[in-house]
Amino acid sequence: MKPFLTFLIIAFFALTLTACATTGTSATATTKCPACGHEFDYQP
């Protein structure tokens, strides 16, 4: 049970860290945060 719980926690944190990530290749990408719905321009 403990290895499954550890995996679940790690997967949850990985998803929350990549929630606002963009996969676009343009110079300026518009990203929408799923938590608050705020849209902002992202310049890599």
Largest sheet: 2 strands, antiparallel
- Arithmetic mean pLDDT: 77
Q: Find the count of extended strands (DSSP E, 2+ residues).
A: 2
User: Which value, in Å, is the CA radius of gyration?
Assistant: 14 Å
Counting structural domains, the number is 1
> Widest sheet: strand order?
1-2
Structural class: alpha+beta
Query: Helix share of residues?
Result: 25-40%
Shape: elongated
Number of helices: 1
Topology as H/E string? HEE
Please indicate the percent range of residues in DSSP E strands (runs of 2 or more).
15-25%
Work out the oligomeric state of the chains in this entry. single chain
Q: Between the first and last Cα atoms, what is the distance in angstroms?
A: 40 Å
Q: In terms of per-residue confidence, which ranges show pLDDT below 50 for 5 or more consecutive residues?
A: none
Describe this structure as you would to a colleague.
- The chain has a two-stranded antiparallel ribbon with strand order 1-2.
- The protein has one helix and two strands; from the N terminus they run αββ.
- With 44 residues, it is of the alpha+beta class.
- The chain has one domain (2-42).
- The chain has one helix at residues 2-17; strands at 29-32, 39-42.
- The model has no long low-confidence stretch (mean pLDDT 77).
